[in-house]
Amino acid sequence: MGKTTEAQAPKPQADRREAIVHAAWRMAATGGLAAVTIRSIAGEIGFTTGIVMHHFPTKEAILEEMIERLYRGLFDDYRAAIERAPAGRRLERMLLSCLPLKPHTAFGWKLSIVLQSEALRSPVIAKMQQRHYRVYEDDMMRELVQLQADGQIPAKTDLAFAMSRLIALVEGIGATYALRPRAMPTKLQRQLVLDELERLQAQPRG
């Protein structure tokens, strides 16, 4: 799960930290985290290693910034979608904005999978990802609670279980698209989410 604000290299005059992070994103997405080194980043964007280390003294510091910006972009994107949504469709807009339906979110999903592999090795990276996931879960639960309060979700629905289903669905769509994009076209992505929301909001039969 993730979103990048730009998948291409920023202009040479752009902020150096921004340039370093964008270079690291591109290198991780195409060559994995093994390709992300201070020396390779410096060579990619024409900086000295000293300049890179001035902003990020270690590779771990670069990875932390990559994750921070990735999730910050995701949060900004879906919160903007929520604000624009009509009443009753806020959760729908939130979920759809997280899917790899656009180039920047598709790139973000590919990068997210690469970074998740690093979380298996690094407790620091894992802790950062868990912190961001809690924000995502809290925002989703807030929308579920509101839908239930408005009578659009049956009162007896287990919202924690409903949230787990939605997260698993979005994660599955994103991971499948990143690995096998032809297996998860945009129309199918949208339909899977909309069908699950329809099921969630359907009144139980007596």
Give the CATH superfamily of the domain at 63-201: Tetracycline Repressor, domain 2
Number of strands: 0
* Number of discrete helical segments: 9
Radius of gyration computed on alpha carbons: 19 Å
* Average pLDDT metric: 90
* Class computed from helices, strands and strand pairing: mainly alpha
CATH class of the domain at 63-201: Mainly Alpha
Measured between the Cα atoms of the first and last residue, the distance is: 38 Å
CATH topology of the domain at 63-201: Tetracycline Repressor, domain 2
Query: Roughly how much helix do the residues carry, as a percent range?
Result: over 70%
Categorize the overall geometry: elongated
Name the poorly predicted regions.
none
CATH architecture field of the domain at 63-201: Orthogonal Bundle
Largest sheet: none
Strand content: under 5%
Q: What report would you give on this structure?
A:
This protein is mainly α and 206 residues long. The two termini are 38 Å apart. It has a domain at 63-201: Tetracycline Repressor, domain 2, CATH 1.10.357. The chain contains nine helices and no strands. Helix 4 (59-84) runs parallel beside helix 7 (123-149) and helix 8 packs antiparallel against helix 9. It is elongated, with a radius of gyration of 19 Å. The mean pLDDT is 90. The relative contact order is 0.12. The chain has helices at residues 16-31, 38-45, 49-55, 59-84, 90-98, 103-119, 123-149, 159-179, 186-201.
